[in-house]
Design a protein that fits this description.
Helices cover about 45% and strands about 20% of the residues.
Length: about 240
Amino acid sequence: MSGHSHWHTIRFKKGVADAKKSKIFSKLAREISIAARDGGADLTFNPKLRTIIEKAKAENMTSDSIDRAIKKGSGGTEGCNYEEFTFEAYGPSGTAIIIEGITDNKNRSIGEIKILISQHGGKMVEEGAIKWMFDKKGVIIINKEDIKDKEELELLSIESGAENFEWQEEGLVIYTKPDELDKVKNFLHENKIKLASSVLEWVPKENIEIDETTREKNQKLFESLDDNDDVQNIYSNFNL
């Protein structure tokens, strides 16, 4: 597995969230609506919706806001005209980037994002040019301070059916097949393991080494992309 620091991504997102809570809630509402529209409003049969609601609650999104987003997606209000998109790009100095988002106007979104990437020294590419460098995986994070017995946790990770796991400075990262994320997460919950997060991510097959100047350029691009209302997630093949 790559050495990608998922904790750094969380800290970056958290910093943005603290400064722009209303924008974060708007993006989460879109995710919830899409998940409810595609999989129904019953959490028992919609693991994607369950995962997004967990994320929304971790950001202190209110129950009323969550309920409104579910009703919009499931047809309880005016309906949901959003669509998901995935764009691929090269960032400054050739870093590989995958951008996921939700929009009500894909042509507008692609135009805005294309301009942002170009302004920061990158370029958008055709579908498939970047994605082959990544694998879609379930990613579960357990913070170091919540780990009592490393050996026992490794055994539980194996028993849960996880694909792989790796220790990083801040704790343990567990990787699963996309369709087994919920199963592994539930197994760990049943064994009283506290999870920091559990999401689907594009995980790079191999990270590239970049210098500090390139890192700063990419960071500025990511901040600009994250400020766009339609962008939900940004993945790269280097360690932030």
